[in-house]
Sequence to fold (262 residues):
Amino acid sequence: MVRVRRPRRLGKVVEGLRDEGVGRLIVGGGDGTLSTVATRLAESPVVLGVIPLGTANDFARTLGIPGHLPSAAAIAAGTHIRAIDLARANDAFFLNVASIGMSAQVTVLLSAQLKRWLGPTAYMIAGIRAFARHPTFRARISSPAGVTDRLVHQVVVGNGRFFGGGVLVDRESTLEDGVLSVYTLGTRSRWDLLRTMALLRFQMPHHRPGDIFLRTPAVRVETVPTGKPVNLDGELRTTTPVAFTVVPRALKVLVPPVSERL
Fold:
C-alpha cells in the first residue's frame, strides 16, 4: 500500500507504479483523485480499482460502484473489468465532466475546508454563491452536427453521467459509447435558472428554447470573452478556446457484475 500525503505527488507516484509494471492499482479517493490517477493510466494495461472516498463520487456513481466501502473493496478485488472512454480537452485528459461558466465558478468557491465541513451540501452552497454573481457569456459551439452561437450561463461536456454530487449530465451515457454529451444552459431569468438547476439535481432533464443538447465524438467551444477557465473533473486545467474529443476504451476499470448494475 502507498499512502500519498501530498496531493501534488500523486501523479508522479502513479506514473512510477505504472512504469514498474503493476497490473492492478486500487485507489481510494474522490473524483479529483481518481481523475489524476486515470489520466496517468490512460492507454496502459493497468486496471483501476475504485474505492469512493470523496464528497461527490460521481464517477463511482456512473459505474454503479457503491459508497459502502466493503462492497466497493470487493468489486476492486474482483475480476469484472470494463474498458471505458476517457475524454480530452486540448492536451489534458479528463475522466468525467468538463464545464465552462457557472460550474467553473463553483470550483473557485468550493474550498477543501467547506467540503470537509459540509460534505455534498458544500456543492449546493458554492452553487448558490456562484449563481448570485456569475455573468453570462457568448459561446460558439462547433461539432459535426453544425455550429451554434448564443449567450449562455454555462456549457457542460460530459463523458460520464453525473457531476457535482449527482447532477444529471445525460441519463444515456455509458462511459463506453464513444461520444460526449454536451449541453448548455441558455439565457433565462435567475428564477428560471434556479428551477432548472433543481430539476437537474433531481436527475430530471430539462431543455427549453435557447438550450443546446447534443451527443458527439468531438466538439470545439469558443467564448467571448476568450480565455475562460475550463473545469476538468473539479480542477481548472485549461482555458477557452477548447477542443474536446473522446479517447475510446482508454482505461480499464473494475466494476460490479452486470447483474448488480441493473
